[in-house]
Structures are given as structure tokens and as C-alpha cells.
Design brief:
With 152 residues, this protein is mostly helical. It folds into two domains: 40 residues, no CATH class; 92 residues. It is built from five helices and two strands; from the N terminus they run αααββαα. The protein has a two-stranded antiparallel ribbon with strand order 1-2.
């Protein structure tokens, strides 16, 4: 976005263009239509999008937490996938990128079994950091609270 505040002539042109657009009935109608979405309750489509976004965030946090205590495994060594079923439930798969396996998953499982509390702390920390990165610095709290879906 350009900063027009330092050029009075440019600021005048921008203001004129905006006022001309607001004088166009088609633009006004579209703006009113878009504005109404700000006040409506989010629909099912939005909740589904938000749930998928949260699960994708959680999946990346899971990968980060899984390798947080292992110095010989890099994030690029593992792939995380989310598989959704027809009922809207998700499964997260963490797999090694190298064919044949290098024992990385066994190392992760060993750490999880040996230090479950530290894994829980790492996943919580990673989820908060990723949520701030995705949703902005104004994020404050537990991302799960904002997108829990009602089971009917």
C-alpha cells in the first residue's frame, strides 16, 4: 500500500477516486452485501474452514513438538499429513521423508514414552507460537477454544 499522506496532490486524487467509487450504485450495493457478513453469525462453511485451519496448525505443532528434544532430526526429515473422513473427523500422520526409514520414528516414540509431560508442554508451546504466526499477534489463549465444533 502506498503512503499518500506526504503528497497532498496524490492524496487528493485518491480521495476523489474513493468518492467516485462510493457514487457508483453497484459498488455501494456490493459493499453493503460484504458489510453484512461482518454482523451475521458464522455459518457451517466458516466453522468447517476454521476447524481445518486449526487441525492443520495443530498438525504442524505436533511435528515441531515431536522433534523438539531430538537434535539429530530436522523438521524437513518428517512429513505431516491430515486425513479427513466423511464424518468430519481428522487423523494426523507423521512420517519419515526418507525411504527405508532411518529410525527417526522410533527415536520420537522413545522420547514420547520417556518424557510425556515434556511432549505435552512442547506441543502446547508450538501450538501457541503457530497460532500467533497464523492468526496474528493479537492471538491470546488457547486456539482450541475458538474453534470447537458442536457435536450434534
Amino acid at each position: 500500500m502506498r503512503d499518500v499522506s506526504e503528497d497532498p496532490e496524490e492524496e487528493g486524487r485518491v480521495k476523489k477516486n474513493i468518492l467516485e467509487l462510493w457514487g457508483n450504485p453497484a459498488v455501494c450495493a456490493r459493499m453493503e452485501e460484504l458489510e453484512s457478513t461482518l454482523w451475521e453469525k458464522p455459518g457451517e462453511e466458516y466453522r468447517n474452514w476454521l476447524m481445518r485451519r486449526y487441525v492443520a496448525t495443530f498438525a504442524q505443532a505436533f511435528r515441531s513438538a515431536a522433534i523438539s528434544r531430538l537434535k539429530d532430526i530436522a523438521a524437513d526429515d518428517l512429513m505431516v499429513d491430515v486425513a479427513w473422513d466423511s464424518g468430519g473427523d481428522a487423523e494426523i500422520y507423521l512420517t519419515e521423508m526418507n525411504s527405508g526409514g532411518l529410525g527417526q520414528m522410533e527415536s520420537i516414540v522413545g522420547e514420547l514414552r520417556g518424557f510425556p509431560d515434556e511432549f505435552h508442554e512442547a506441543i502446547h508451546h508450538a501450538t501457541i507460537l503457530l497460532s500467533k504466526k497464523i492468526y496474528g499477534s493479537q492471538f491470546d489463549g488457547d486456539p482450541a477454544k475458538s474453534c470447537r465444533r458442536k457435536k450434534e
